[in-house]
Specification:
By secondary structure, this protein is of the alpha/beta class. It folds into 2 domains: about 120 residues, Rossmann fold; about 180 residues, 3-Layer(aba) Sandwich (Rossmann fold). The protein contains 13 helices and 12 strands. The strands form 2 sheets. It has a 7-stranded parallel β-sheet. The longest helix is centred in the C-terminal third of the chain and has 19 residues. Bound molecules: 2-keto-D-gluconic acid. The site of 2-keto-D-gluconic acid has 11 residues, from loops.
Length: about 325
Amino acid sequence: TSPRPRLLLTQRQTPAVMARAQKDFTVFPVPETQMTTARMLDAAAQFQPDAIMVSTSLPVRAADVARLPSCVRVIATVSVGTDHLDIPAIAARGIALSNTPDVLTDCNADLALMLILAASRRAAEYLALMKKGWGRGLAMDEMLGCRVTGKTLGIIGMGRIGRAVAQRARGFDMKILYSNRRRLPPDQEKGARYFATPEEMLPHCDILSLHMPASAASDGMIDARMLGLLPRGAIFINAARGALVDEDALIAALRDGHLAAAGLDVFRNEPTPDARLLELPNVFATPHIGSATMETRTDMEMLALDNVEAALHGRPLLTPVRA
Ligand code: 8YV
């Protein structure tokens, strides 16, 4: 029998995935916490893996790709986003690359709705009050939130996740606007109103939610000018990527009340976001947990393993990342 392929896991996976990995592969000892890229490169040099599983918290840039041993045939990222990877450099080394689309769409959309509801209804402030001691009844006009039902939601990036957010928002009778590189066919648009540019859409949004990938072109696209186009009192939601946002401009807009609130799952500096953002009472923040359910993380990691096995058996990847 041929020896089992060697798999470098850069962090622990869910129990079902660990069991499968340990059965089907020789697995490098998995660290308690996420490896750094430097540690991953050392482990790769020592362990000589056929395959490596990474995630958004393990960037692989061109200089890192250059240091990978030649035995590495496939990198599987446990994420739909690929902005942490140098795709051309990986392709140039002849290393197959897969990601995990679709399986996380629902959980990410659920999280976006959680952020919309929590930001609109001041969940962070109420939780802080309850922990401090409710103490006395709130006055009828004190600490009021914003109604969600019937509001206008603008979505930038109407891909799988954006459409799943729209689907959920329809349950709250929200009016859906979207901007996207291209207009969707009617069966996907489902009555949402298309804008060719975000600039044209923003003045009409009560709530703005980002669902596009990060890239060099989209870096910092939500800046002071764009935020200024939103009506006063709008709510800003980001469960996509922190790099899409100029956080100085976001902080200014939240401080001066131009934005009523923000719901943020992603930040420019993870895992140590700008403290000024987290101190704001009108920010509801979570630590990049859009896909973090047992079911979805298991599905993502199983799909990553399926891709690894396909690559090592010379079959086409299930979900390839194309250069
Ligand atoms: C992370 C994500 O991958 O899929 C993505 O693009 O950002 C998340 O699902 C996950 O949190 C692991 O880092």
